[in-house]
Each structure stands twice: as C-alpha cells, then as structure tokens.
Amino acid sequence: MPTTILHIDASARLSDSTTRSLSAQIIDQLASDQFPGQIIRRDLSDPLPQITETWINANFTPSDQRTPEQEQTLAQSDALVDEIQRADTIVIGLPIYNFSIPASFKAWIDLVARVGQTFTYTDTGPKGLLDGKRAIIAVASGGTAVGSDADFATGYVRHVLGFIGITDVTLIAAAAMAITPETTLKAASDAIDALAA
Asked: Which residues pair with 77 in a beta bridge?
C-alpha cells in the first residue's frame, strides 16, 4: 500500500551531518519496502518564523472570522500542519545542541502544535489528533549520552509527538560522536538496517 513519508532534517550543517546521513539511510530503508509512495521534504536549515503576538492572535481567531492578513500570517503553519497530517511516517534527523533540540526544530513544533488541528482539549485533558502515525528519529550528539540526565532533547520530543497523537516512536541514536564515532555510527546504522517497514 502506498505510503507518505515526511522527512525532516533539523541540522544546521548541510554537509558532514551525522543526522542528515542517518535520516537519509532511514528513508532508503523504508523506500525499499514501502514504495510507490510520496516523500515530503522539510529541511529546517531554511529557517521557519518564530511565533509572535500577531501569530497567536491569528491562531486563536475562529477560522471563519480571520482577516486576509491573519490567514497570511498562518499560511506557513498551515502548510506544516498539512504535511504532518498527510504523512503516515515521520522521519526526523535531530542533532542535540547544548543538551536540547535545535531552535529550528522548536520553531517547527510551535508551528504544528495547534489546538483544533493537531490536538484538542477534552473533559479529561488534551488529546492528540494525529494517531495512527509512526515517527523514526535519528539523534546524534557530540558528547551527550542519549537518555541520560543531560539529555533534554529526546524525552521532550517523545512527549511533544505523543501530545499530538504520535506514540509509535523509534529512536536511532548516534550518541557521543566526539568520543566513539566509529562504533557509535555503526550501531546506529545497524539499527536502521533492522527497521521493519
């Protein structure tokens, strides 16, 4: 059955990026079994706008009451929400910068976590609207051990994805690349080779 993959890279590096290399390997692994299909590409080295008061006011204005200017303000966010709604699988290349996620990826999160679009409020609390999707995250760090007390990236990303309904999350880690690059990268590559479509 054809599938749609949203491929996101958050590394500021356009070359010599471990996460870009790993996310591309994941795409190749999935494509061998899941195509014909579609890949939606989102490279966050092309900066996204930060949310502003103008954006917040537009977002909380009922859609049938928005001005043309408010619709334009939300256009980028609408496009990003559409991408993740259309995707069956989300592949994310995510470096750890200073113990957390890159600012570019935080901007993406802020623009896709929208009430009524990707989550809603219920009597029992928030409920994600993007259930039934799968996320595969390729993480790399220079010295931060993934899953350690110093890792403020992966737990946060799992939480945010779960918040919008994506609970099937696989983590491929190439941690501490500055310390043991060869063995770390091989372990990550082997984990990708073992991914089931």
From this structure: none
Domain with 152 in it: 4-193
Q: pTM here?
A: 0.94
Torsion of CA 164, 162, 95, 177, to 10 degrees: -170
Residue 126 has φ and ψ, to the nearest 5°, of -65, 150
Contact status, residue 76 vs residue 114, Cβ threshold 8 Å: no
| Spatial distance between the Cα atoms of 51 and 60, rounded to a whole number of angstroms | 13
What does residue 52 show for φ and ψ, rounded to 5 degrees?
A: -130, 175
Q: Which amino acid is at 161?
A: L
Picking from 164, 175, 85, the residue whose alpha carbon sits closest to that of residue 137 is: 175
Tens-digit pLDDT string for the chain (197 aa): 568 999 999 999 999 999 999 999 999 998 876 565 899 999 999 989 999 999 999 999 999 999 999 999 999 999 999 999 999 999 999 999 999 999 999 999 999 999 999 999 999 999 999 999 999 999 999 989 999 999 999 999 999 999 999 999 999 999 878 887 888 889 999 999 998 76
Number of domains in the chain: 1
**Domain at 55, CATH number:** 3.40.50.360
Neighbours of 132 (CB within 10 A): 9
Q: Are strands 134-140 and 89-95 parallel, antiparallel or unpaired?
A: parallel
